[in-house]
Structure formats: C-alpha cells, structure tokens
Amino acid sequence: TQAARLERLARLPLRDNLRGLKPYGAPQLDAPVLLNVNENTHGVPSDARRAIMRAVERSLTELNRYPDREFTELRESLARYLGHGLSADNIWAANGSNEVLQQILQAFGGPARTVLSFPPTYSMYPLLASGTNTEYLSGERASDFSLSAVSAAEQVAAAAPQLVILCSPNNPTGTALDLEVVRAVYQASEAAQSIVIVDEAYAEFAHPGTPSALTLLPGRERLIVSRTMSKAFALAGARLGYLAAAPEVTDALRLVRLPYHLSALTQATAVAALEHSESLQANVEDIKRQRDRIVDGLRALGLQPAPSDANFVFFSGVQNPGKIWQGLLDAGVLIRDVGIPGSLRVTAGTEQETTAFLENMERLLAAEG
Ligand code: PMP
C-alpha cells in the first residue's frame, strides 16, 4: 500500500531536507482534451517533423560515439534564433529548462545560500532549491499578483540572496513583467552580487511590443535569460531548454553539467526544429488567438481572467474551483487547479479544444446558478 511504501521510504537514509516532500507533477490523467500542463496543443508541423526524422536518422550512424559535448551547432542555431547580437558563447542548453535552472542552482546555490522568488510562481523553483540544498525565500506580490519594480527591488535588497528568479510571463498567472522590474532587481542586487534569472519559458506567446529581458543582457554579467523549446517549439517531449547570458556564466555551468548531457538525438532534433521555426511560429500565432478567445470568453461569463502573455490563462472569480475542475474532466477536458482559492488555470488548445472548454464552462457556470 501507499502508506507502507511511505514508511519504507522514511527508513532510508534520505537527506533531511527531502523528507516529507512530494515529487513535482500535475496528475497525469487521461482525457480527450489535455489543457493542464501548458503544452503546445498544436503539435510539431509536418515539415519540421520530416526534418527531425532525417536529422535523427543521420545521427544514428554515429550513435556508438559520445555526442558533441559542447553541442556547438545547437548553440549556434539557438544564438541565431534569439538574435539580439548573441553568439554561441552566450548560449547554454540542457534537458529542459528545468535542468538549466537546476544547473544554475548547482553552480551558484547550495548550503548556506538562498534563492528568492515571488509566489505564486512556477512551483518547481522551491523543489529545485531543496534538491540543491539552497534555501528558498518567498517574496511577496500585490494582492492582484502583480509585482512592482519598487517592491521587488526592496525585497531583493533586504534579502541579499545569491539568486533571484523572476518568471515572465509568470506561471501560473500568465502575465509578463515590465522590464523596469528586471532592471530594478538587477540594480538592487548589486551589493549582494546576486545572479538574476528571468525565466522566459513562454516569451514567444507575449503580445507584440512586450520586450524580452534579452535586450537587457549587454553590460549585465549576472543576468541570465532562460528559455525552452517545450512551448513555442512544441518539443516538450524532446527536452531542450536553454539560456542566454555572459560567456563566464556558461563557463560556471560547465563545472556542474554531466559530460555529454545532451544526447545526439536531442541535439539533432533541436537543430532541425530551429531550422523550421517559421512554420512553428504559425502555430504560435493560432495559440495566441485561442488564448485571447479564452480571456474574452471567460470575461463574458463573468469571471476574471488575468492578462496573459503566455499560452495559458489564469482566471479567478470561480465559486467552486474543485467542482468546475471535476465537471470539465467529466466532459473530457482536463485543466489545472493550481491551489489558489477561487482560481483555475487553462492552457490554450486548438480551436476545437478551446471551444470545448468554453462551452463546458458556460454550461457548468449556468448549472451553478
Ligand atoms: N519554467 C516555467 C515557467 C515553466 O512553466 C516550465 C514548464 N512547465 C518550465 C520552466 C520547464 O519547462 P521545460 O523543462 O520543459 O523546459
């Protein structure tokens, strides 16, 4: 039984700060419409899929050899994709941006060190902190979950952490940070010389005119902008996250990475996908349309969706989130209860999936009366 298993786990010589923790993960339930973990619901376009197949097949002839430990071609492709005058020396990658973040914490965090972030935010941050024995400090947001430059800077100056993680667009709320916040946080961390990470996993879905923290990199050698191919590139299954930073930051990460951590198959897949970023971009545009439909639709139903620059929408004003969540699941639509009272989060689907979500929401809210 589960209880016996937990008891046996408790008898193992587990590290103290891992005792009682639960592994991260949304429930992996099977439903026809999966809108719970902010995946790209549009899949990999067929031209990109064919290119990936060919690239992976080519890589098979050398699968007996270790892959390029420095993944040079991939770093060059990622630098080209990001633009902003970046070169391969500015780029680092790993198996998902979760691993990128873990490597940053391995290099700059650790015992007697702290990482400050601002909940509600990505729930992996505290787990990555405990996994690397780094103390996690919870900063505060305004009651509408916004974070002002003044407040963020004050909190960073007071905490003097070794690391700060800003998530923009923020998960689970979906809203992008004003770059003023990043500038102010960087300045406030001057005394402590903190590493400042901006997690831009959802950057490609931002509204036009939302600048990326990539624009702030010149002259800021403690700033790291983290990205992923899991969302805009629809490659969650391939596991490729990356970052842009000063070359010395990537040198710090070389000290903690496992040798050959990016498989030849991963490198081939990512390079081929980057060559087809245009057809992937077309899907991003449709996802943004569906995201805006969700915001408008939920508002019309009397709920309060947060402004979203991501491929998901966080909405409040739900009287009974658990019941709505279950009602949607009974209708085959799985969304996410992120544990914030009166609120739920939904990923933008295909047009059909989005319609299924909105129609069921209307029906369930009407039934609530
Ligand atoms: N950062 C944020 C804010 C996320 O929401 C996610 C995925 N849910 C990640 C990082 C990690 O994504 P991946 O490891 O697939 O790159």
Automatic annotation (TrEMBL):
Pathways per UniProt: Amino-acid biosynthesis; L-histidine biosynthesis; L-histidine from 5-phospho-alpha-D-ribose 1-diphosphate: step 7/9
Transmembrane segments: none
Enzyme class: transferase
N6-(pyridoxal phosphate)lysine modified-residue sites: K231
EC numbers, comma separated: 2.6.1.9
Reaction(s) this enzyme catalyzes, per UniProt: L-histidinol phosphate + 2-oxoglutarate = 3-(imidazol-4-yl)-2-oxopropyl phosphate + L-glutamate
Listed GO MF terms: histidinol-phosphate transaminase activity; pyridoxal phosphate binding
Key words of the record: Amino-acid biosynthesis, Aminotransferase, Histidine biosynthesis, Pyridoxal phosphate, Transferase
Cofactor(s) required, per the database record: pyridoxal 5'-phosphate
Subunit (UniProt): Homodimer.
Family in the record: Belongs to the class-II pyridoxal-phosphate-dependent aminotransferase family. Histidinol-phosphate aminotransferase subfamily.
PANTHER family membership: HISTIDINOL-PHOSPHATE AMINOTRANSFERASE, HISTIDINOL-PHOSPHATE AMINOTRANSFERASE-RELATED
Name the UniProt record assigns to this protein: Histidinol-phosphate aminotransferase
Species lineage: Bacteria, Bacillati, Actinomycetota, Actinomycetes, Micrococcales
Gene assigned in the entry: hisC
